[in-house]
Write the structure tokens for this entry.
Amino acid sequence: MKNKMENAPVLQLDGDAKGLSRLTREQLAELEDREKTPREKLFDGIILALPILTGILALMEYLLLPSIHDNPMPYLYSGLLILFLACYTLALFVGIPLHRQGRKKVLRYLRYKAPLYSALLVVGTLFDIGALKTEFFTYPLVPSVNSVLYALVTDWKTLAISALHTLRLMMSGYALGVIVGLATGITCGYSRKVRYWIDPIIKFMGPIPISAWVPIIMAFAAKSLSLGNLFVVFIGVWFSVTVASMAGVSNVDRSYFDAAKILGASQRQLIFRVAIPHAMPNIMAGMTQGMSTACTAIMVAEMLGVKAGLGWYMTWQKAWSLYNNMFASLIVIFLIFTVVTKILNAFKKRVLRWQIGVTQ
Amino acid sequence: MSLILKLDKVTKSFARVETRDVTTALSEIDLEMHDGEFISLVGTSGCGKSTMLRLIAGLIVPTTGTLSVNGEEIRGTSPTRGMMFQKATLFPWLTVEKNISFSMRMQGTYKQQESRQEVDRLLQVIGLERFRRDYPAQLSGGMAQRVALARTLICKPEILLLDEPLGALDSFTRMNMQDEILKIWQNNRQLAIMVTHDVDEAVYMGTKVLVMEPHPGRVMGEIPIDLEYPRNRSSAKFVEYRNQILDMLHFGSREKD
């Protein structure tokens, strides 16, 4: 115990409760953890070094084995590997001295991620052998990592324009779906009369898969295809948001309404200050689900109808048998949808802050 | 200014959902209450105590008869008739501070300087200044009920309706809260009407205890409690009052047969 305290000069305990209450979470974990044996420390060291070893292995394999296919701009993949090695080594150089000072966060993170990085690099190496150095994968159906990077670098302008198109259509459809969905869901949840008329529409539209709309939209909206595509994205979002907010609003505990009425809330305020905030967890769940249907819908729409966007880019590149470009657009799609979902989650966390402690 | 709450032949019936027949929760109640009084309502469940409170609050309307404050008939709820429930019913999406100021923000008076000072003052009264930015989920039952009390008091109600407000609390918190509520009532001298299942609490807090009986709901007896505050729960007179009420409710020394 004493020995451990000397290793961690940041941790200063005066022994009384006041000192303990000033502990950080990290220091608390450290106090309660047992100390690692030399063997465990050695093992940790090896794991931490593993990404560097596998990284060098991947680099050597890529540079030393001869390619059997055409491989323009060969320096992209090797550059990426070197960039990773540099970043990782730098992180180690920052993390190790910090660790000695008792700030273990950086190194702990690296130790946690190191096995994953190593595995990725090994898979990358094997993949490169299969795609570029031998005939193991069918050429050119399975492109090497370098050729996908090549596609990203050379065709970035088209990719960016396509991505913008996708985002624009998706976001406008999504925004429209959320706004109209909230309006219908909340009024349906609150008023039985409105629900009488809207419910059949929901019951009819709900079970129809998004993709089934596409041919109909194209037939109807031969002139204004973009409006039809907007509809395809809109309808799924509208459905999820409507159903979720309706459930949220109609399930408000009566006692909240009683309390609010006693405190002088008007009919309008009962909706906007009680029913809607109460339904917020449901609404956010509907918005998350709506986002995933919007992502599917936009891809289906672009592959079948729209003459722009990443879905269109993919089908277009397939016609030219440019498989590496298809994979490149897959990466862009992944990036866009990840970022969009992350933003939505952050928003959700902020809006539902009050739920901390309710749901846990 | 004095205040008179009058119930004139008030009857309230409810249609039952399952059986289609109608039950009478309150039958021809005639009552008069004044400011400065602390009325305790006791009775077995189903005697219409809560119904009476909800009628006075204006949450429900009487089937026949009228309720009036200073001659003016009660129609709908009003912040001047504040009510506290057994459940704190704090809005979980609002912080303690915003729960307390809820009625001000409904009326649009929250921006004013004195409104904020009033919130600060009430936070101090309930001793929860440290928790002003916490959400209700982080509070204990007693703390939540204190916030609910502050939220009601901020409207400066002329009538304070308490529907078993301490029913869900542990006995120590409960005794503390009894004293806190009494102190607030003594400072403001409004009319307070409290429903309780606890005869001890009814005698400890009330200037008058109304004993009610069910089927149909009626007031069986009015017992003025002639004891000085703060009351001693084990004094002979206190025990006498308690036994008298328990007797009326057919509990206590006589076994129910």
